[in-house]
Amino acid sequence: AVRDAVIFALVMHDLGWVTMQPLVGLPALLAAVILQGRLVLLGTCRRSRDTRVGGGGDAAHEGAVFAWISGSCLWTFSEYVFDGVRPAGFLANITFLTSLNGARLYPAFMRVAAITMLAAC
């Protein structure tokens, strides 16, 4: 059930991302991070319990998915903030974000996002 909620949150995130609507995408991404973080913790606890009886666990898989979602956070945020002339949606009203140097930060954010997502593979 939690995995299904993560998938639903990621689909909503993608919908917000492709339409450049951070009011949809960012809360959905936050939900995915929280729910996937819960799965990572449960997988780690399950692994420590199952190891005593010779089992495995889902910790590695859940951790890789969490790393992928973390990279997606950076990727999405950088596109919301730096991809246009101004940040997308309500983010354009945040002075701190409008004052950032997108020419310098956008490639850096994208590199870190790509490395994080590649490490998850």
Give an overview of the whole structure:
Helix 1 runs antiparallel to helix 2 and helix 3 runs antiparallel to helix 5 (102-119). The chain has helices spanning 2-18, 22-51, 59-82, 95-98, 102-119. The mean pLDDT is 88. 77% of the residues lie in helices and 0% in strands. The radius of gyration is 17 Å and the shape is globular.
Query: Which descriptor suits the 3D outline?
Result: globular
Order of helices and strands: HHHHH
Query: Which stretches are poorly predicted, pLDDT < 50 over at least 5 residues?
Result: none
Beta-strand level of the residues, as a percent range?
Answer: under 5%
Q: How many extended strands?
A: 0
